[in-house]
């Protein structure tokens, strides 16, 4: 008989190691459903992104090896890279929506069904994706502001460019909590930004440590699964440097192209799969910060206690019972 695993609470004060333990426990408990919905929603985006990646790498080799029209090669590179960046952003939005959607369902039910029906997950996913769209607009605004600040400092003197870079690192750490603060609550984007700013500065060291360690882990894992594509790119570069472009034509060239495309899809999809860990641990970091600073669970317990003890919730005494008591 399989025993039920204890629920992983969102709002809980955790040690540094507990954040990682809870993250991996959550993912291992729900990895089948997470992988299923990632394959449904993210894999098609990864396939489109892989095609764009193949186009812009081919444009780089075409310009570097001196064949083809250099102007058309540069134009195709710019367009392909822009499309690849767009698909990468969309994949990140969808991945965050799935990760935080699962965290919200898990928080409400304590467990996720072994085969989660789409009808049950669809409303949560739609809500998360709408919030993810707003988050992207906010992050684009933040990014544009930071770029303008860096340019202004660089125009004054190149030496001062170090100042905004250090400021970006310091400010970027608390800003990392904006996404979980907005996706895991029903607060407005502005209220979520205020919470993230307050919680992030109060627990700056913890947020920074989580970001560094988990980002390094994600890059290593995703990089390992990107090795086949790196090998294909290296082989293609070697062939083009030792002979003309016709070396990749014919049946052998077609097989190589298919293998390169499949490995590119694997690299893009692996990046999204591993980023789930980063989204989840930021969620638990937000829960840790919220509990440590504001005592969220204590406030909820007090509100429930006040609600139970309120006069409106007291059992009403029937008038007939009172009259019968008087007759006694």
Main traits of this protein?
328 residues, mainly alpha, 0% strand
How is the secondary structure organized here?
Elements: H1 16-29, H2 31-64, H3 70-109, H4 118-156, H5 162-175, H6 178-183, H7 189-202, H8 204-225, H9 227-242, H10 250-294, H11 296-309, H12 319-327
Helix pairs in contact: 1-10, 2-3, 2-10, 3-4, 3-10, 4-5, 7-10, 8-10, 9-10, 10-11
Structure, described:
It contains twelve helices and no strands. It is mostly helical and 328 residues long. Helix 3 (70-109) packs across helix 10. The termini are far apart.
**What do the pLDDT scores average to?**
82
Helix content: over 70%
Number of helices: 12
Computed structural class = mainly alpha
The radius of gyration computed from the alpha-carbon positions, rounded to a whole number of angstroms, is: 26 Å
Q: Element order, helices and strands? A: HHHHHHHHHHHH
Shape: globular
Report the β-strand fraction as a percent range.
under 5%
Instruction: Measure the end-to-end span.
Output: 58 Å
Q: Biggest β-sheet, characterized?
A: none
Flag low-confidence runs. Answer: 63-69, 314-328
Number of strands: 0
Quick synopsis:
Helix content is 81%, strand content 0%.
